[in-house]
Amino acid sequence: MRQIVLDTETTGLDWKTGDRLIEIAGVEVIDRKLTGRHYHVYVNPQREIDAGAVAVHGITLEFLADKPLFKDVADEFCAFVAGSELVIHNAPFDVGFLNNELGLLGKPVLTAICPSVIDTLKLAKEQNPGKKASLNALCSFYDIDNTHRTLHGALLDAELLADVYLAMTRGQESLIMALDEPVPSHADEHAGSLPMERPPLKVLRATSDEIEGHNKMLAEIAKANKGHCLWLAPEPAPAA
How would CATH label the architecture of 2-172? Predict the structure, then answer.
């Protein structure tokens, strides 16, 4: 699976009132491993940047004066993300801005070139109800070093979010690792003078709330993947 962990910076908070993109960054993850490949570009918005936004990301119009327009990088950006699953924190915000920029150029929207979008903000709130779900809070929760994050920046935030997302979904990675481990042979198990005494296995049964939550999560995954899930594969027809 190819995923792109994506982040943007903007001139303000709402593309509907004319705010524009000024920075886009994405880092590539393949089979849950960072590849080191990334996309990063600053964009000249051709409009003023809100003072509140400058206070958050530190990017000024003077800095962007010689940067390309979005129309000059649109094809390159689309080629980088095409066919990948997007991982975005507060996805509606970034997707809204990107779709607006693409729409102004008459190009297909982001969700038409990428099969699905994972919103890590929504995922974090589902996993830890009532807990803070900002990127800084998640870095602290998952013990990811973000001390160098003094201002928001699309590339740095995408890199941090990639680490956060992999930590949030580590159960998937553990399962893959477990399947890759060699099975010990009978001889290995009984090496030495005496067999190893093992403590009794403690079995924890899922509660009804946990089962309900699990089924809800599976349903959301199935919906996002349009039903193309292994656990939804049709049962073989009975023999004639």
Answer: 2-Layer Sandwich (3.30)
